[in-house]
Amino acid sequence: MRWINLVLGTVLVAGVILLGLVSLAWTPFDPTLVVPGERLQPPGWPHILGTDAFGIDVFSRIMAGARVVVQVGVVAVGLALLVGVPLGVAAAMSHRWLSDLIMRGADILYAFPALLLAILLAAAVGASTMTAAVAIGVASVPAFARVARAATLQVMSSDYMLAARAAGTSPLAAAVTHVLPNIAAVIWVQASASFGMAILAEAGLSYLGLATPPPAPTWGRMLRDAQNVIFSNPEQALWPGLAIAAAVLGFNLLGDGLRDQLDPRLRDIS
């Protein structure tokens, strides 16, 4: 029954990605068009999730927010992958002093949360989608470095790596041909979990006004806008909250499913 997590995670992730891709070409209504005469409409037709306090269609904003979520997640996780994995592999395959230097640098970076980095970047270059993505990506680098280092150390102790080193294979060639293919499964699991965390971090930064500026809709800003009508119209916070929860749950389930399928020690357990 371990495949259930993988299937459910894949369905939820595919739904988020599909919403984001469809929103590039079509949304039921303009997600930025203010219509005061239709404010706070209940769910129904043609507004299937109703309208917000500005008269904007909620479902259209959810779709447009999914596009921002996917963009931030791809940039953040891609940045963390490109920087963290090589650092982790290099730390595991280098001399002790260099390994300690790399990992202590990762520990220092780990002390700066994504929120603090986003505030610093927003103060320097202004709040934007890319600012939030870079801040989240930089904050995720230490996690990838640690995972890559631990997995590489396991590979380095294997017989085929000892044979490769005895045959005179260079460290770079060994990393490309032996290490990276054998740690790919662990990295993909970490990437899936980090994508979910990136979604949650982006929602928090948008809620604080440190990510995508208005009028572009984001799920975090939808939650902030819902504060003013939370007691009279609680569904205004329900829909973006459910979207964030479903997206984060989907990527976490996908990560668990990938781990169960790719880890032979778990796959062989009946």
Summary keywords:
270 residues; mainly alpha; MetI-like fold
Q: What can you see in these coordinates?
A:
This protein is elongated. Helix 1 packs across helix 9, helix 2 runs antiparallel to helix 3 (96-110) and helix 5 (129-156) packs antiparallel against helix 7 (171-207). It contains 10 helices and no strands. It is mostly helical and 270 residues long. The protein has helices at 3-25, 58-93, 96-110, 114-125, 129-156, 159-166, 171-207, 219-226, 235-262, 264-267. It has a single domain (3-267), classed as MetI-like fold, CATH 1.10.3720.
- Please state the average pLDDT score: 88
The computed structural class is mainly alpha
CATH class categorisation: Mainly Alpha
* SS element count, helices: 10
| CATH fold title | MetI-like fold
User: In the CATH hierarchy, what is the superfamily?
Assistant: MetI-like
From the spread of the alpha carbons, the general shape counts as elongated
The CATH level-2 architecture is identified as Orthogonal Bundle
- The ordered string of helix (H) and strand (E) elements is HHHHHHHHHH
Topology record:
Elements: H1 3-25, H2 58-93, H3 96-110, H4 114-125, H5 129-156, H6 159-166, H7 171-207, H8 219-226, H9 235-262, H10 264-267
Helix pairs in contact: 1-2, 1-9, 2-3, 2-5, 2-7, 3-5, 4-5, 5-7, 7-8, 7-9, 8-9
